[in-house]
Write a structure and sequence with these properties.
240 residues; alpha/beta; Nucleotidyltransferase, domain 5; 2 domains; T6A_TsaB; ATPase_NBD; Gcp-like domain-containing protein
């Protein structure tokens, strides 16, 4: 089975081509261009380099959040469009689950952290399950203030591996709170990668209902939704 993965949940555009769980090719762009500008040209280049045609793809995997609201929508819309055109199934995975693959084979607690803005992170807690050769989840995805989450991580009795786009921005705070027990990967290992999504999508493909309906995974309301809710609350109060 050949498949394509799309991850636009952060500022990184990460694409992957996989076959039976094996990474065939991946694309990684972290530039000032938007996802909509990067995605299709990168896909064309990957397919050409792998000597694949679009019709060779048996299914598509997309990372559906949490992350950037705009990025999530672009990724899902692109994946849905390709799925319909090619008439192939679509699989959705979570960004934090995919990032946990950065901890492949490691003994540390695996903690993905994504910058959710408003002084919050999207995060979860994982460990490497050697028996099943995949990440296991100990703490479900949630949004939390960095200080509070780091205090919880500091209570763990083992080193903590941090991955995700918040690592570079908050590395001083992380080191301050956890000291030598904090393991900080460089960007080229910590940011979303096509390789991570290829592994997580294949795991889901083998375990989940195939061809599921893929919806965005938000851990909180978008700014537009918050603004609308406040206006609606004020309107109802004035009318009441």
């Amino acid at each position: 089975m050949k498949y394509l993965t799309i991850d636009t949940t952060t500022k990184v555009t990460a694409l992957g081509l996989g076959e039976e769980g094996r990474l065939v090719a991946e694309g990684f762009l972290h530039t000032t261009k938007t996802h909509s500008e990067r995605l299709i040209p990168m896909l064309d280049q990957l397919l050409g380099a792998a000597a694949w045609k679009l019709r060779d793809i048996d299914f598509i995997g997309v990372v559906r959040g949490p992350g950037s609201f705009t990025g999530i929508r672009i990724g899902i819309a692109s994946a849905q469009g390709l799925s319909e055109v090619l008439n192939v199934p679509l699989i959705g995975v979570l960004s934090l689950d995919a990032l946990a693959w950065a901890g492949y084979g490691r003994s540390e607690a695996i903690v993905p952290i994504l910058d959710a803005r408003k002084n919050e992170w999207y995060t979860a807690g994982y460990y490497w399950d050697g028996s099943s050769q995949r990440p296991g989840c100990r703490v479900q995805p949630h949004a939390i203030e960095p200080q509070r989450w780091l205090e919880e991580c500091a209570r763990l009795d083992c080193p903590v591996l941090f991955v995700g786009d918040a690592v570079s921005r908050y590395k001083e705070l992380i080191s301050e709170k956890l000291g030598e027990r904090a393991v900080l990967l460089p960007d080229y290992l910590a940011l979303p990668r096509g390789a991570f999504a290829v592994q997580e999508v294949w795991k889901r493909w083998r375990e989940e209902v195939q061809g599921e309906s893929v919806e965005p995974y938000y851990l909180r309301l978008s700014e537009a939704e918050v603004t609308w809710a406040k206006k609606e609350e004020a309107r109802l109060k004035n009318n009441g």
